[in-house]
Amino acid sequence: MAARITYLRNEQLRTVKPEYAGNKLFGNQFANGEELYTPSFSNVFRWKFLTENPQKEEKKADTWTPAVVSCTEFLQSQEDGLVWLGHATFVLRTSGKTLLFDPLLFDSTFLKRRHALPCRPEELTGIDWLLLSHGHRDHLDDKSIRLLARQNPNMQVLSSLRMAPLLRGMAPQLQVQEAGWWQQYDLGPEAPLGIYYLPAAHWHRRGLNDLNQVLWGSFLLRTQDKLIYFAADSAYAGHFEEIERQFGPIDICLVGIGAYKPAFMMQLSHTNPHEAAKAANVLRAGHVVPMHHGTFDLSDEPASEPIRTIEEIAAGGMLRGELHAPAVGEVMHWPEWE
Predict the structure, then answer these.
(1) Which pLDDT score, from 0 to 100, does residue 211 have?
(2) Mean pLDDT score across all residues of the chain
(3) Coiled-coil region(s) at which residues (predicted)?
């Protein structure tokens, strides 16, 4: 029997894409646009037990890690800036407001950091908005959420449809605003920026029985004079063109470049460096900041390959925007970027 098709959005929020009915549900599962994506266990088995990594020795010998500098001084200041904390975690400050993206601040059984955090987790205070793109454990971490909720009692969480029950199981006091794709969060009349939840080509699972039951997506921030796009986890797909059509050229694009090998396992979840460059070019991004590489060992490519490749792409003139490859913890003064 075919699954019942319905559409869901937050009726309390503004939908910015004309005639968009909401996110499509096949029964109880969200979809990538019109198509339901179900990750295959057979691919995981094939990867882990049946496939020999052709770069096994190269990966073993590649001990590169990103440089790390302290960002404590920035966190204690009020200056505008952007700081990469590793993987997909960023701190952004604009007009006196501090935003934190997809925080993963601690090691866990399956996720061990390859480099130090550029600050103590206890220094992440004064967070106004916590942006959570989706529910995978390398983007939504229980321990990090509990700590941030304790340290930031007035923090508001901006996330996706059906995320609130999951988050309140970690920290019941959290203020959570859920959005569907193409919706604008309600930040109040005095907010110095606008924030939109936008599509991504990905999926959700944290347990055995919750496949695709919580939505995934990306974020767009409209500051006084710039558009900043956080691509989150996504395969390359048509949503990049749709976003450019809806909003025009992006000023700053934060895009994933790692966790792409083997392709049969990763290509429907993440962008490789060439796909990341293509996405940034389609978005007509003026500046590109790579992420989702170097911090955790999630895939088969050698550690330094993603950043080497995106730098080669940029040096070869195949990246429209200016590439910024910061050290972990380095303050990027994005308001000064032309």
Answers:
(1) 94
(2) 95
(3) none
- Among residues 290, 286, 288, the alpha carbon closest in space to that of 270 is found at 290
Q: Find out whether 291 and 328 touch, Cβ atoms under 8 Å.
A: no
Q: What is the predicted pLDDT for the residue at 43?
A: 78
Choose among 206, 245, 220, 174: nearest CA to 17. Answer: 245
Task: Give me the phi and psi of 62, to 5 degrees please.
Answer: -90, 100
Residue-wise pLDDT for 51-84, tens only, equals 889 999 999 999 999 999 999 999 999 999 999 9
Q: Which amino acid is located at 42 in the chain? A: S
In terms of residue numbers, what domain contains 325? 5-336
Confidence of residue 35 (pLDDT cuts 50, 70, 90): confident
Which of 210, 226, 224, 220 lies closest to 243, judged by CA?
Answer: 220
pTM recorded for the entire structure: 0.96
- Number of domain units in the chain: 1
Taking the C-alpha atoms of residue 266 and residue 337, their distance in angstroms, rounded to an integer, is 33
Q: φ, ψ for residue 230 (rounded to 5)?
A: -110, 105
Q: Is the pLDDT of residue 93 over 90?
A: yes
Distance between CA atoms of residues 152 and 229, nearest Å: 25
* Count of other CB atoms within 10 angstroms of residue 53: 16
Q: How far apart are CA 336 and CA 183, in angstroms?
A: 29
The CATH number of residue 60's host domain is 3.60.15.10
